[in-house]
């Protein structure tokens, strides 16, 4: 048995003819005996011979300094670790933290090994429910192809069969029950873990078999689809540590969004010089379809439009613009759109002190990687996106690492779209500064899926596995009844302040503003406030929150605090708990829902006032509403 430093969590490991572990939280089973195993080729079963050679138990209490702090700069890393070395050349490690449990396999075979499968079982007490993003079938591809963009659904665990498969994180527990999130970390040279049902009280890990054959599906967004898979999930080094299987535990809902256990378990970076990594804010034009107005030129993918975006970014304190799909032939990065003069644009951006960022198609970037990165360097590009991977088998996971390393060699930051969640990758590659892996703002173009209730589910679920690129900031806002999915006239459900609060509530060291700059120019006070937000944080505290209902997040940067709140369709008045705010006097700027935001969700009001620690603060959020409070310290206490 091994316990967390605060003794609230106990893990019991049972060895008989198999290995099982169970987890108790405050004396009650949160996970019942669950089997684990690693099955290798040549009938090698890691639990086939359980003779223990030795075991070690030790306590670690350190601090990780994050170079790109998405939640906090100084991350306490306090745990009890049990290492069991078996007579056969493998070990099993368990780490028990005050906020979760993790285990991993480590092998020390001399030669390479083939992993046929991994057994990762999660057995729950009867009657439990789980929130999980169930995969939708995709025409023309197998079940392991997904863009990792699904709604979280609440299901009884025993209602899920093995045909129901989701990507992680998933979250169990409802109401006052202890919450348990299942995810993974340190995913290297190995496939990601899906979660499926079993028809009973348990969930199990499922892993994509290794791709033996791929076929390029050509088109506007060409991508490789797996046409033949092997009878194994990975071929890898014989001496290695495998990914962590991670259980995040929380007594209260509000303890989940601030959890950074997955980052702590990520493999430390080998990069030495990180001074070239610059978090910040970026524009993107794709969601609004470049539907600009009040301009003297034809908007589109052209030089004039991108100069307009550069001027907009400069005016409101955004660091860079994204040139999204269309700046080149998607299938050839050197076949540049004839309406764009890249030399003129890069010079203009450099003179304005704004960076240019580029969208790429993963299959194209893979083929043209070295020459493309050199060209990006010449243009002064310090951040790129690559898109349409839509897999997490071993071959694709290795692609992520190879691209991140190549970008690091060229001092370029990278964001992956059509991608799985970070899962500690951003600790290994700090230049992999954010990640999609979420159903975000773009879905407003063609569906009604991104509701305010969904928006306030993400911090408690998907965000457990790392930062997410939601791309907030849509400036055309609608009630549930008003909303329509309209291409190039994109609106969002909920209020304007709900959109603004996402910049504070969602972890992402590189936030992407997706609203229409022509509208933003008409509301300079709003945009100046939004443009002043940091994207990295010294400290993060979740003041209040309930999954799918609402959240209030307080973040500290330097001496200043930023508090963001979001609600579902239920209006709420919140009295802010400010006990964690440093004592002192502050200049306060509050952007809150306007009096008519229930009928006209773009209605907001910005108030400026002095505030001193101890004074009560109440904020009303309209249906689908939100707020942001910026507190700038003005004394030296």
From TrEMBL:
SUPFAM superfamilies in UniProt: (Trans)glycosidases (SSF51445)
Domain Glycosyl-hydrolase 97 catalytic: 294-438
Keyword annotations: Calcium, Glycosidase, Hydrolase
Gene3D superfamilies documented for this protein: 2.70.98.10, Aldolase class I, Golgi alpha-mannosidase II
Boundaries of every Glycosyl-hydrolase 97 C-terminal oligomerisation domain copy: 536-631
Single GO MF descriptor: carbohydrate binding
Glycosyl-hydrolase 97 N-terminal domain sequence ranges: 2-268
Superkingdom of this protein's organism: Bacteria
Cofactor(s), by name: Ca(2+)
Subunit and interaction comment: Monomer.
Protein name in UniProt: Alpha-glucosidase
Organism: Flavisolibacter ginsengisoli DSM 18119
